């Protein structure tokens, strides 16, 4: 069975398990199996019939580009990678005219 690595922010839905094994030969089947085992997880990974915007999936070191129809083998490792976002930088002139970057308020 594929091994699925659970992002830290979603582990409260998997009883704090870092990885789980579920059956599936496509990403869709893996996510459906996760939902059966851990209700509510699918809603955090998918939006309708696609992955949520900002959610990337890596299967065996390769980015999943075929969405939910991506193939998964019995020995695969599946990693869900949520987008890291937030914050911005603002530049101001510091001492000696150099640009200094600070987090924007």
Q: What can you tell me about this protein's structure?
A:
The structure is a single chain. The protein is an alpha+beta fold. The protein has a single domain, classed as Ubiquitin-like (UB roll) (Roll). It has two helices and nine strands, in the order ββααβββββββ. The strands form three sheets. The chain has a five-stranded mixed β-sheet with strand order 2-1-7-5-6, with no helix packed on it. Strands 3-4 form a two-stranded antiparallel sheet. A two-stranded antiparallel sheet has the order 8-9. β3 and β4 form a beta hairpin. The radius of gyration is 18 Å and the shape is globular. The termini are far apart. About 7% of the residues have low confidence.
How would the blueprint of this fold be written?
Elements lengths: L2 E3 L13 E3 L5 H11 L3 H5 E2 L2 E2 L3 E5 L2 E2 L13 E6 L6 E5 L5 E5 L2
Parallel strand pairs: 1-7
Antiparallel strand pairs: 1-2, 3-4, 5-6, 5-7, 8-9
Features:
105 residues, globular, alpha+beta, two-stranded antiparallel sheet, 15% helix, 2 helices, 5-stranded mixed beta sheet, Ubiquitin-like (UB roll), 31% strand
**Integer-rounded radius of gyration:** 18 Å
Task: Please name the fourth-level CATH homologous superfamily.
Answer: Beta-grasp domain
What is the CA-CA span between the terminal residues? 47 Å
Q: Class, according to the CATH hierarchy?
A: Alpha Beta
H and E order: EEHHEEEEEEE
Helix fraction, binned, reads 10-25%
């Amino acid at each position: 069975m594929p091994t699925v690595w659970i992002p830290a922010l979603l582990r409260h839905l998997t009883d704090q398990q870092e990885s789980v094994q579920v059956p599936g030969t496509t990403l869709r089947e893996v996510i459906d199996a996760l939902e059966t085992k851990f209700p509510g997880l699918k809603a955090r990974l998918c939006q309708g019939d696609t992955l949520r915007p900002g959610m990337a999936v890596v299967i065996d070191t390769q980015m999943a580009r075929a969405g939910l129809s991506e193939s998964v083998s019995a020995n695969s490792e599946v990693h869900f990678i949520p987008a890291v976002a937030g914050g911005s930088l603002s530049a101001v002139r510091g001492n000696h005219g150099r640009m200094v970057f600070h987090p924007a308020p």
